[in-house]
Amino acid sequence: MPRLKKRCSQALILLALAVGVLIFLFQDHSSELFYETHWQDLGMSEPQHQIVLEPQQQQRVPETQPPALPQRLLVPCFANASVANMSGFSAQPRHIQDFLLYKHCRDFLILQNAPPNKCTGSPGGLGPVFLLLAIKSSPKNYERRDLIRRTWGQEREVNGATIRRLFLVGTEPNGLEARKVNWLLAMEAQAHGDILQWDFHDTFFNLTLKQVLFLEWRAVQCPDASFIFNGDDDIFAHTDNMVVYLQDNKADKHLFVGYVIRNVGPIRVPWSKYFVPELVMKENKYPPYCGGGGILMSQFTTGAIRRASHVIPLFPIDDVYLGMCLEREGLAPATHMGIRVAGIQPPSPRIGSFNPCFYQDLLLVHRFLPYEMLLMWDALKNSDLECSKVSIIQPK
Ligand SMILES: *[C@@H]1O[C@H](CO)[C@@H](O)[C@H](O)[C@H]1NC(C)=O
Ligand SMILES: *[C@@H]1O[C@H](CO)[C@@H](O)[C@H](O)[C@H]1NC(C)=O
Ligand SMILES: *[C@@H]1O[C@H](CO)[C@@H](O)[C@H](O)[C@H]1NC(C)=O
């Protein structure tokens, strides 16, 4: 017992010293903001570190408090034991069982938050956000995030409108990996201020949870963003074109565009990634929805979807879930011809599909390798791109 006491006091002294050094190092930088990182992934606890966030582009951050998230005590969410009593439950694949056991859980701790001026803008820096890029990324996809930061996801002004960027991530399901990757994400958050991480397992069937948590975050921390782009980290988004397109639209009107998928239903073959058994959904038809690779939505529509999400139970496939929310609100998704979630077909096989001229009029193309993003970005930035009139966008 006395040994334990000694250990504890040693640990406390070390902690106090560390905090003291941090405060000493940064006391002159009164405009810098401190964020907490939580390390309690899967039972591993560590003293809480203080992380210093470099203000972006050397701008001075106004000395206001970050907008407070609703203060709640987070009660750990337990599996719903009576779910396991449903007939056929034990025959389901593991990820389906996980989904059913935990689908009532919607409250998760934020491990990395965005800087408070993410959406409001700051004096001398970027203005209030017009288009917020909310990019779903797996914790380990560091290279993809890095390339997006350097290419289409650059925070900047286009046509006088501010684009800001956030990566939405959960945690690695594997405990040891989680510790490592959380460290990586803490570093990224510190360097770029673009990580929004929650303490839930980042799996395919938890993508709807990620979406719903983001909608809650947006309502509190980013209510004034005119438009939201929701997309994956393996796409190429022509963000300049997006701004030009969105400037012809109104934030307070319905807008939900992407690539609309109709007349499909749950896939009932168990080996499919998209397998949804009757136990999860009885109906055989999905409402119309937009493929999740990339969707643009207005402030109005984001609010409507959030409202619907409060009453519609989580459904494992995130883009279908958004379609369910729209349907409930009496809204419809629309196709934009410039959004190609299935890649693009060049008019002739002799012209490769990797031709910047095909991309100059597009908003989004799915399936890009990281280095291809860099090449495409460079090509599109090259103002004397010589293109004949081979526009592939058909008139609507
Ligand atoms: C599951 O079913 C058994 C038998 O019908 C019942 O005794 C038990 O209480 C049920 N468990 C839960 C958690 O509902
Ligand atoms: C737990 O599962 C049962 C059976 O599916 C369901 O009736 C009940 O509402 C669930 N409870 C929660 C808290 O979701
Ligand atoms: C979703 O995340 C929760 C919290 O980490 C986890 O308990 C659950 O198993 C996950 N669900 C799936 C389907 O992976």
UniProtKB/TrEMBL annotation:
<dbReference type="GO" id="GO:0000139">
    <property type="term" value="C:Golgi membrane"/>
</dbReference>
<keyword id="KW-0808">Transferase</keyword>
<keyword id="KW-0812">Transmembrane</keyword>
<keyword id="KW-0735">Signal-anchor</keyword>
<dbReference type="GO" id="GO:0008532">
    <property type="term" value="F:N-acetyllactosaminide beta-1,3-N-acetylglucosaminyltransferase activity"/>
</dbReference>
<comment type="pathway">
    <text>Protein modification.</text>
</comment>
<keyword id="KW-0333">Golgi apparatus</keyword>
<protein>
    <recommendedName>
        <fullName>Hexosyltransferase</fullName>
        <ecNumber>2.4.1.-</ecNumber>
    </recommendedName>
</protein>
<dbReference type="GO" id="GO:0030311">
    <property type="term" value="P:poly-N-acetyllactosamine biosynthetic process"/>
</dbReference>
<comment type="similarity">
    <text>Belongs to the glycosyltransferase 31 family.</text>
</comment>
<dbReference type="InterPro" id="IPR002659">
    <property type="entry name" value="Glyco_trans_31"/>
</dbReference>
<keyword id="KW-0325">Glycoprotein</keyword>
<dbReference type="GO" id="GO:0016266">
    <property type="term" value="P:protein O-linked glycosylation via N-acetyl-galactosamine"/>
</dbReference>
<keyword id="KW-0472">Membrane</keyword>
<keyword id="KW-1133">Transmembrane helix</keyword>
<dbReference type="Pfam" id="PF01762">
    <property type="entry name" value="Galactosyl_T"/>
</dbReference>
<dbReference type="GO" id="GO:0008499">
    <property type="term" value="F:N-acetyl-beta-D-glucosaminide beta-(1,3)-galactosyltransferase activity"/>
</dbReference>
<keyword id="KW-0328">Glycosyltransferase</keyword>
